[in-house]
Amino acid sequence: MDWIRDLPLIPAIAVLWVIVLLRAGGTYAIGRGAHRLARRGRLEEMLSSPKVARATDVVNRWGAPVIALSFLTVGFQTAANAAAGLTRMPVRRYLPALAIGGLAWATIYATVGLAAIALWVDLFLRSPWAAVAALVLLAGIVVALIVRRRRGRSEGRSLPRTDGPDARTP
């Protein structure tokens, strides 16, 4: 990746954008192919069920923002692109989401991402234990934020509403 880091910013973003378009687009294509293969035997019944048809419609209708935003995550983007292919999201909806999300990913990766990776590799070469500790600390922070957010959601659901048409008036 050093050669990408040595490029000026715009060409680096362009190279990374092409890479992500090929990788994510390929994942989508594999998902579409897997859907075709699954259209045989017992899976045919499941994929034709009303629930699956409804879920497919939702993903196809609202999935483009999910695809675009998935590029701002780590790990979820592959699953999102595969799901778009498996549910046969129309290409006319998928490609704009891929282009926008991929450009966001390439821009972030070309600026902050490569610098963070280089910093971590440098730390690892100086002290492997410190580099591992940094990863564990980062993972702990991410887990704590997720737990905090989920607790906030579940506490918010159990509180009675104080406004709107469902609020109780004394």
Explain what you see.
With 170 residues, the protein is an all-alpha fold. It folds into 2 domains: 2-113, no CATH class; 127-158. It is 82% helix and 0% strand. It contains 7 helices and no strands. The chain has helices at residues 2-5, 9-38, 42-47, 50-70, 76-86, 91-126, 128-158. Helix 2 (9-38) crosses helix 6 and helix 4 packs antiparallel against helix 5 (76-86).
Sequence-ordered SSE layout with sheet pairings:
Blueprint: H1 2-5, H2 9-38, H3 42-47, H4 50-70, H5 76-86, H6 91-126, H7 128-158
Helix pairs in contact: 2-5, 2-6, 4-5, 4-6, 6-7
Give the class from helix and strand content and strand pairing. mainly alpha
What is the overall silhouette? globular
From the alpha carbons, calculate the radius of gyration and give it in angstroms.
Answer: 21 Å
Main beta-sheet strand count, sense and barrel state = none
Counted up, domains total 2
| Discrete helix count | 7
Percent strand: under 5%
Number of β-strand runs? 0
Q: End-to-end span in angstroms?
A: 65 Å
Q: Helix amount, in percent?
A: over 70%
The average pLDDT score comes to 79
H/E element string?
HHHHHHH
- Low-confidence stretches are none
Describe, in short, the structure shown.
The protein is mostly helical.
List its traits:
170 residues; mainly alpha; 0% strand
